[in-house]
Design brief:
seven-stranded mixed sheet; 123 residues; mainly beta
Length: 123
């Protein structure tokens, strides 16, 4: 399985972005897929995870209610819709698998990573 992210950029506080994660080499139906954020000068932290079947999602408290993860099995894609963005959301966002549905912030189980996409929230 290979993962490639896109959709990052510069956005003002309160704005929105949608990140995309394109998978190849295997079907995402076999994996729980998540999004991981690395803020400047900090470590990587999981922020969301969607189950292999796409019927269950979990979020870190820092993004719950603002971010939505989704999966399109036909396109073999995972998305992260980010609304009401804040400066603290700035960082590199990675698509990764397999994520943990019980401890979303953990990156210990993730062994497949994309290259990351930069998100900058600033006025």
């Amino acid at each position: 399985l290979q993962l490639v992210e896109s959709g990052g950029g510069l956005v003002q506080p309160g704005g929105s972005l949608r990140l995309s994660c394109a998978a190849s080499g295997s079907s995402l139906d076999y994996y729980a897929v998540g999004w991981v954020r690395q803020a400047p000068g900090q470590g990587r932290e999981g922020i969301s995870c969607i189950s292999a079947a796409g019927d269950n999602t979990v979020y870190d408290t820092s993004v719950k209610g603002r971010f939505t993860i989704s999966k399109d099995s036909a396109k073999n894609m995972v998305y992260l819709q980010m609304n009401n963005l804040k400066p603290d959301d700035t960082g590199v966002y990675y698509c990764a698998a397999p994520c943990s549905m019980t401890l979303v912030s953990s990156v210990a189980y993730l062994d497949i990573w994309g290259q990351g996409t930069q998100v900058t929230v600033s006025s």
